[in-house]
Specification:
heterodimer; A: 154 residues; alpha/beta; Rossmann fold; seven-stranded parallel beta sheet; 4 helices; 30% helix; B: three-stranded parallel beta sheet; two-stranded parallel ribbon; 9% strand
Chain lengths: 154, 155
């Protein structure tokens, strides 16, 4: 038997555009783990070939029906994959993934987007309390009881 | 998310300069350019190929656009989206543009008039640095040690 403890399964979650680009720049450094991706655009599958990939609908906090559907899909993926760790760069799918992760006993990481240079993202402010590791990419936004600064995706 | 203000400004520049060698991804915007070619959406692979073959890139101040251009060290000119124009919910893109422009990574314009005058300088601009494929070692190490726990040290 292999005596080295593995980290188990990581669920990597992001919405589209910059969130997804930033997530990949983190996960490229953790490729030796068992990583499953969850995002909102079908075409992104080609950027993580060889990995399991779940597509969910996109939603903003303005559309409550789409957001509820998104939350339900994230929950189903959670129950199916049973990840040990959740890593997300936001926004809405990451928020739901962190809440379910906390609820179902996974360890959770929130990386606030580098786009939020002056204040934390709204989703980050909401999700922070569900994150075991809460990171901002701006040193001046780090604070006691809030996010920690540990470098950026650049 | 459409950004008609940007497309209209570049269209005006293309009309005046006579430069038709512009190609744009414009989303589901209401304004369609008259002086250059555009499509609503590109796949990530098409987007990548378009940036590779471009001599300069013009976009909003989103991190996806900025990272894509800097990976290839392409000259990039950004126009931040503004909350006052209903283009975002706050002015975070203005802060992003200032940060990257201040470090010589890109050119920024804060109104359409500035944008049009800076496009002429874009192809001569050389970004101060390019980016690798992975985030900073400090960030990766912090997340790895959290995710892997002691297993990372044992391995």
């Amino acid at each position: 038997m292999n005596m080295i403890r593995r980290p188990g399964k990581i669920l990597a979650v992001a919405s589209g555009g910059g969130h997804w680009v930033e997530l990949l720049r983190v996960m490229r450094g953790i490729e030796d783990a068992d990583v499953v991706y969850v995002t909102v655009q079908r075409d992104y599958r080609h950027e993580v070939e060889g990995r399991r990939f779940h597509l969910i609908n996109d939603a903003t906090r303005w559309n409550k029906v789409a957001a509820a559907l998104m939350a339900f899909r994230v929950l189903l993926i959670f129950l199916w994959e049973r990840p040990d760790v959740v890593i997300t760069t936001g926004a809405a799918p990451g928020y739901f993934a962190l809440r379910f992760g906390r609820w179902l006993g996974a360890r959770t990481v929130w990386i606030d987007s580098i786009a939020n240079a002056e204040e934390l993202s709204l989703s980050g402010q909401m999700a922070g309390r569900y994150a075991d590791l809460w990171l901002t990419q701006w040193s001046h936004l780090a604070r006691e009881g809030g996010p920690e600064y540990a470098g950026a995706v650049l | 998310m459409p950004f008609d203000r940007l497309i209209r400004a570049v269209d005006e520049w293309a009309r005046i300069s006579g430069r038709g060698d512009v190609f744009a991804q414009i989303g589901d915007g209401k304004y369609w350019p008259s002086w250059f070619q555009a499509v609503p959406f590109l796949t990530p692979r098409q987007f990548q190929e378009r940036i590779e073959s471009a001599s300069g890139v013009i976009g909003h101040a989103g991190t996806g656009t900025i990272i894509a251009a800097l990976r290839l060290r392409k000259p990039l000119l950004v126009l931040p989206r503004l909350a006052a124009r209903g283009e975002t919910r706050n002015d975070h893109q203005v802060a992003t543009a200032r940060y990257f422009a201040g470090r010589g990574y890109l050119l920024a314009a804060y109104c359409e008039e500035q944008l049009r005058s800076r496009i002429d300088k874009l192809e001569q601009f050389r970004p101060s640095a390019s980016l690798g494929e992975v985030g900073s070692p400090q960030l990766i190490q912090r997340i790895r040690s959290f995710a892997f726990g002691d297993a990372d040290k044992a391995a």
